[in-house]
Amino acid sequence: MTSPSLLPELKIIEPKVFKDSRGWFYESYSARNLSLYGIDAVFVQDNHSYSLKKGVVRGLHYQAPPFAQSKLVRCTRGSILDVAVDIRHGSPNFIKWFGVMLSADNKKQLFIPRGFAHGFLTLEDGCEIQYKVDNYYSQEHDRSIRYDDPDIGIEWDVADPLLSEKDMKAPLLVDRGKDFVWEGER
Question: Which of 100, 97, 89 minimizes the C-alpha distance to 150?
């Protein structure tokens, strides 16, 4: 099952969870189920991230073409504010962002297509995030944008986030260039 986000290309996946006295079970990934919602990405790599402390911000990250990536993100331990930003120049939603809480408890997932930057904030200590991508990592095409870019205006609600050196030095989107251009309705 999916629910709409404020940006139509993003999909919030809410899997059906089967619970009983032993615990629970759910399909964390089903190509067949995703295809029902227009998601046809062929995932080639799984990534797993661990953040020790509450208040870690990772992002905003993306890969430039031809190594652009779609992502299917879930939080398997703890909780995060997961954020995607439309960075397709010319898009009617250019620089608009959407955030959703993903947690081990709610089991929601966020599908983020190519042309969007991604980041997250840990809402508690010891968060694990797992995400599938539909293209392999390329260091040469790895890009970042400042998490606090004023043109984007993400409401992180954290005064002093824990950042990597890479994220502290990330440029503003205006200085990044046009890695993605909106191609209009398909």
Answer: 97
Is residue 59 within a helix (H) or strand (E), and if so which, with residue range?
strand 57-63
The mean predicted confidence, pLDDT, of the chain is: 94
1 SS3 class: coil
User: In which element (H, E) is residue 31 found?
Assistant: helix 31-35
Query: Known catalytic residues?
Result: 61, 131
* Pairing mode, strands 88-89 and 180-181: parallel
Tokens of 52: 């020790």
pLDDT in tens, 33-56: 999 889 999 999 999 999 999 999
> Could you report the per-residue pLDDT of 115-135, keeping only the tens digit for each?
999 999 999 999 999 999 999
Fold of 2-176: Jelly Rolls (2.60.120)
Domain definitions of the chain by residue range = 2-176
pLDDT band, very low/low/confident/very high, at 12 (cuts 50, 70, 90): very high
User: Which amino acid type is present at position 103?
Assistant: S
Residue type, 87: I
